[in-house]
From TrEMBL:
Protein name listed in UniProt: Uncharacterized protein
Keyword Repeat applies: yes
Keyword set includes Repeat: yes
Source organism, top-level taxon: Eukaryota
An annotated GO BP: proteasome-mediated ubiquitin-dependent protein catabolic process
Keyword field: Repeat
Organism: Adineta steineri
GO molecular function, one term: zinc ion binding
């Protein structure tokens, strides 16, 4: 593959040093671009499509740890139904979330430092929910919003959620793509305060 050619709907993350990370979904890898260079390097998944620890299968959104494990990339390994963590310079990833009962086609991820550890918030596209997950746990700590496997138009239901984002007040915004809406959830409630 040519490092400059991307294929698919890439996830994008820019760190505080302006290093750009792009999930190259169609080529099953993550590319890292440094400021002022016109080429990238493969940061994760340089062994083609697959389910081995050194492979990815349609990676989507990514998040880079800039607090605890500087440069560690958390990847929504969409078709493998898992979250992979690739340490800076690693040749293979570490599975930090996998549960075929809960984690269906992860598509977006946020990490938040809570009580001296990184907590993952994962948008489960086919599971129609957003999950709160402690890395390496066997299952989600909680379902933040949605009901596993049950899509719907009600305020507490999602249909193929994608992007997720917290504001400074811990309100959660979810791109509820199947319902063509953006949902706003208060952090400690199970239904929407507002639908947009």
């Amino acid at each position: 593959y040519d490092n400059l050619k991307l294929d698919g709907q890439p996830g994008l993350y820019v760190d505080k040093n302006n290093t750009v990370y792009i999930s190259d979904t169609g080529h099953h890898r993550v590319i890292k671009y440094f400021l002022n260079l016109n080429y990238g390097i493969v940061a994760a998944g340089e062994n083609g499509q697959g389910s081995q620890l050194n492979q990815l299968n349609s990676p989507y959104e990514i998040y880079v740890d800039e607090i605890y494990e500087i440069g560690a990339i958390y990847i929504c390994d969409h078709q493998n139904h898992r979250i992979q963590k690739w340490l800076n310079g690693a040749k293979e990833g570490i599975t930090v979330a996998f549960n075929d009962e809960q984690l269906h086609s992860p598509i977006a991820i946020l990490l938040q430092p809570i009580e001296n550890q990184m907590i993952m918030f994962i948008s489960s596209f086919s599971g129609n929910q957003v999950l709160k997950w402690i890395p390496f746990a066997q299952e989600a700590e909680s379902i933040v919003v949605g009901i596993s496997g049950h899509m719907g138009t009600e305020a507490d239901r999602l249909f193929s959620p994608r992007g997720i984002k917290f504001d400074k007040y811990w309100n959660l915004f979810v791109a509820d793509t199947g319902n063509n809406r953006i949902q706003k959830f208060l952090f400690n409630t199970s239904s929407c305060e507002n639908s947009y």
